[in-house]
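Re: your question from the hallway

Yes, I did run it. Sequences:
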Amino acid sequence: MNPVLAELHDKARAVLDPVHYDFFAGGVGDEVVLAENEAAFLRLALLPRVLRGKKVSDAFPVLISPTAFHKLAHPDGELATARAAAGTILVSSMASTVPIADVVAAATGPVWFQLYVQPDPEVTQALVRRAERAGCTALVVTVDSPVFGRHRRDIAHGFHDLPAGLAAENMRDLHGVPGLRKIEMSAFSWEDIDRLRSMTSLPLWVKGVLHPADAVLAVAHGVAGIVVSNHGGRQLDLTPAAVEALPGVVDAVAGRVPVVLDGGVRSGGDIALALALGASAVGIGRPVLWGLAADGEAGVRRVLDVLRDEYEHVLAMCGGELTRDMVVVRGTGVSGWRG
Ligand code: FNR
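Structure:
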């Protein structure tokens, strides 16, 4: 791993309350998927192309994936993340410890709002209006969480609520309910996606699609984009690594909407591999939390700077273009994806 990212992780681990470190670091069940998300990238290699004479573009195809409760990592919480997010898209979690309006005000670039559809449709609608009023430019509906993942580390610590003084601020005072409404998980359906689309003119993405058939349905239901994700190994400990599910979704979507990949992206090389397999961009979860915990806004900036620098270097080495035929499965010599 890049030594800067390793240093930020180690510092985060040293400064965080171990209960909160485990909340950020942990996954569901035996944490098989958590490990696989990273391991799968290490099983892939790239056959660079040469003599292409291409100038590398300066686009940085990275989003900050939505993660909950940034004030557990640093007192500035999501404000620090937003300030550091320049040059990327910040997908702000519905479970932020700063209200979405303040997150958007602190950001210099686009902010998208991640939403868990709530059992009470009025609460869902109120959240959408909060995101719109705040100036978010897209909604990202997380669809992989019909129930909470069972995180053994959190269970062992008895961690199931925020410490006093912190709150999921976007839930505050909804519909005159005094105090805080807790976020609930809900088994909703494509009809709810249709309802959401008719409720708002914001582009609507779905996050947490792994099966190609669901990707086809998502396109049919008019989504603006798809995030291939297993929630960083936090929901079902039986899925493939996220990057292994990517080519199937890319093929099913056939270019009709952009596909973003998150889970296990830890280097510029990982970004390049995901793009070669057809992703338009990648999302970064935990490394941002490590930067935030280690050094607030400056730490998040360092994470993004390292990834940008590594990615540009790999891209230049590969002739400025990344295509699926360049991807080789290590130990097989087979190029192209036989997923
Ligand atoms: C998450 N993730 C997440 N996803 C989401 O849609 N809403 C959320 O509130 C959260 N919260 C959350 C908290 C923590 C601590 C983690 C680690 C993750 C999932 C997240 O958006 C993303 O899918 C993964 O984090 C990507 O994997 P990596 O980059 O962490 O490996």
